[in-house]
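Page 47, continued from p. 46.
Same chain as before, 540 aa.
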Amino acid sequence: MYLTTAEFRRSLSAGIMSLAGVIGFIAVAVAALSGFGRIGDAVSVMNEPYVWRILRFTLYQAFLSTVLSVALAIPVARAMARRPHFFGRIWIVRLMAVPLGLPVLIGALGIIGIWGRQGLFNDALAFADFGRPLQIYGLQGILIAHVYFNLPLAARLFLAGIERVPQEYFKTAAMLSMPQRSIFRFIEWPVIAPLIPGVAGLVFMLCATSFTLVLILGGGPAATTIEVAIYQALRFDFNPARAVALSGMQIAVTALVLAALALFPKAKDPGASASSDVSRRPDGDHRLSRGIDAGLIAVFLVWLALPLAMIVVKGAGADLPGLLREPAFLRATATSLAIAFSAALVSLALALSFIAATGAIETLRAPGALERGLAGSMSAMGSLVLLVPPIVLGTGWFLLLRPFGLTDAAAPAIVASINALMALPFVLRVLRPAVAVHRARTARLSASLGLDGFARLRIVDWPGLRKPTLTALSFAMALSLGDLGAVALFGGDQLTTLPWLLYSRLGSYRTEDANGLALILGALCLVLMIAGTRAPAAKN
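Result:
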């Protein structure tokens, strides 16, 4: 990549300022937690059996959720890999991504509609005179919800790994008449096994830091995670000492998980196939294999689709015109869109600054220790922001601002900033490879034409990076729009977002309104995701 001296300085300065802003925002929250003046009280809280019971339950439910998600994802991924072509396969693969972009609160309502006491599953059992044995609130409800959201993610990651196996391996196995168990042992398992630590670690992190699902489905003190306990300590009990102690515990847990993930080596690519023919897998031609695969895929499809269908059915039965005319709904929608757009812009600006700065440092022939440290810190931002979850950041800023009476005034900016940091890993994942490819193609030409600054942005960069930029922007907006974690501490009459309004209606037993709001919120997020994936491509 070719950069003028002015471009290098601008890129590096923007990256350093963005890095300082992110670290400063997190550091202020952590400092507010540790220096709140009750650190001694917080240490004494660690002796409470209640605190350690919460820690044990957090790790226990995360462990069980991870084991179930990973164990079920492997056979689903193998079945999908053995059937590279069948009618509707592409839509099933796309459906795997829906729980990732679906607001957790909406997914929880759909899960309650299927697995709740008055849900479809218990209705079927009651019709068959088996009563209503399934209780959605408590550990089993949390496990069902976590598996619903994380099974598709794990299956998609395993599927991508299996699909990279060269087709010649399976053709050779067919010629040798290898049985299914041998194909799995000698061909598929060597690819799947290295992926398990990374996939399991990711799922464990998501479950250990789960907030909304546990808040909705926890079922009381016996089924409470650390993040929900932090929220309860401030929102209901106003026990800052307990909130500080639990926040420190949560940071320690996430730090240990991230450190453990860093110890595992990255999975290696099994190699490239000499043939691009993936029309069929020879080991999938047997009648028994076809039946097993069809059954697994069908069950997986029903598992994914039923809660989504329940959201649509129940939401359509609500008084949607009445909801759309409510002043509370209109205010919440305007607030949500403003916060989501602001968060997306901030996340986009941070990501582009980090990418530009690391690219500038890479142009140096012999970067010093300082430059290498800056580049490493900026590259790691996508993972480091996961170290301090949203509820912990919100707790720190809440405790800092409350004595000055500024919580209401600063709440929108704090919520938007937290949402921007939570969207940053995704935005970086979308933009970093796109920018690298674009700069490799255009840097020499831009330098030879003397294009710099705004002229280069208008003529070269924006046309080439418009689609990934709009994709990242729209997905960041969708993530922020459906988030309840950041607004949980600040939500109220002065700050009402759509997720907070939905949660409030659900808490006041206005279930019909909650179902209608869930459908509207889900539709808004879906529109944003579709808009991002269909952003206009650059014209040649």
